[in-house]
Amino acid sequence: MENINPQHTESGEAPKPIEKDYESHKEDPGPAKPAVTEKDENGAGQALKWVLPIAVIIGLIIWFIMRK
């Protein structure tokens, strides 16, 4: 943990506003509008909601069988 890159530490200041004029802020641009406003309709959360409980149940069944 000694080699922390200072670029990735929290500064406590407000986040940058949505970028509207990229050419004038090329050196340090803010986030693009789609990155902030895009909806996550088909994200991994929908699949994980079903996969994780099933994996835990299968893991418990295997653990109970192997324990004996």
TrEMBL record:
Residues 10-40 have a biased composition (Basic and acidic residues). The chain crosses the membrane at residues 47-66. The keyword Membrane applies. This is Uncharacterized protein. Residues 1-40 are annotated as: Disordered. Keywords: Membrane, Transmembrane, Transmembrane helix. It comes from the Bacteria.
